[in-house]
Amino acid sequence: MFTLPNLPYDYSALEPYIDEETMRIHHDKHNAAYVDNLNKALILLAVGLEEKLSIKYKPLLDLNLEKMLESINEFPEMLRERIQNNAGGHANHSFFWKIMGSPDSGDEPSGKLLDALNFTFASVEKFKEEFTNKAIAVFGSGWAFLIKKPDGTLALKRHSFQNSPLMHGNIPILGIDVWEHAYYLKYQNRRADYIQAWWNVVNWKQVEDNLNEALGSK
């Protein structure tokens, strides 16, 4: 069974750019709901196995979150969408909390991350501009990600709802939640304002760690 991870900082740590109340609701209610509903879906799968559901599904119960999403098409069709939505929601949010931090940190892209952004997007400023436009352009609820593709290159990708890059063999390096619950209390319908503010709380050290880990995975 999966559990809700604690935030790596106080609920108020991202003020004034992301407010404490939003963080409490986003983490304690939304992320918690994905964890709860994922566990319920896995219980249904376990019950199905006891009722003679094909034994080939049994190893899926022992997968970690990342492997579960990578193997989503192996789950029985009757539970696949439910597991995809909730495992994706849990994975995306667990990732999201880590790539944010105090706006007082003052860090900027450096090392291999800086080199990769300059190589792929010409400059950090151009990267931020393209990423921002990608996030603004998400229709309805979803995410924008910087991903590492299986061929080792970096790219920007929009995902609807809680679909995870991991489902397509991609590794998330940076991502922003543009579901309305991520920003509506403070920014109402001003998604662009939220995205511009969010750049102030990006934890670039964690993003660099994500890239280094992704580059070492192949």
Strand content: 5-15%
Q: So, the CATH homologous superfamily of the largest domain?
A: Iron/manganese superoxide dismutase, C-terminal domain
Q: Domain count, please report it.
A: 2
Report the span from N to C terminus: 29 Å
Shape: globular
Helix-strand makeup class: mainly alpha
Total strand count, please? 3
The rounded Rg comes to: 18 Å
What CATH architecture of the largest domain would you give? 3-Layer(bab) Sandwich
Helix/strand order: HHHHHEEEHHH
| CATH fold naming of the largest domain | minor pseudopilin epsh fold
Task: Give a short account of the largest sheet.
Answer: 3 strands, antiparallel
| Strand line-up of the largest beta sheet | 2-1-3
Q: What ranges have pLDDT less than 50 throughout 5 or more consecutive residues?
A: none
Helix content: 40-55%
Number of helices: 8
Mean pLDDT: 94
What is the CATH first-level class name of the largest domain? Alpha Beta
Family: Belongs to the iron/manganese superoxide dismutase family.
Catalytic activity: 2 superoxide + 2 H(+) = H2O2 + O2
Protein name: Superoxide dismutase
Organism: Candidatus Woesebacteria bacterium RIFCSPLOWO2_01_FULL_39_21
Describe the protein's architecture and organization.
Pfam families: Sod_Fe_C (PF02777), Sod_Fe_N (PF00081). It catalyses: 2 superoxide + 2 H(+) = H2O2 + O2. One of its GO terms (cellular component) is cytoplasm. Destroys radicals which are normally produced within the cells and which are toxic to biological systems. Mn(2+) binds at residues 26, 93, 177, 181. The mean pLDDT is 94. This protein has helices at residues 20-50, 65-70, 77-98, 111-121, 124-136, 184-187, 191-198, 204-215; strands at 142-148, 154-160, 171-177. It has 218 residues and is mainly alpha-helical. It has 2 domains: 20-98, Orthogonal Bundle (Helix Hairpins), CATH 1.10.287; 111-215, Iron/manganese superoxide dismutase, C-terminal domain (minor pseudopilin epsh fold), CATH 3.55.40. The chain is 49% helix and 10% strand. It has a 3-stranded antiparallel β-sheet with strand order 2-1-3, with helices on both faces. It contains 8 helices and 3 strands. Helix 1 (20-50) packs antiparallel against helix 3. The two termini are 29 Å apart. A hairpin with a 5-residue loop joins strand 1 (142-148) and strand 2 (154-160). The longest helix has 31 residues, at 20-50.
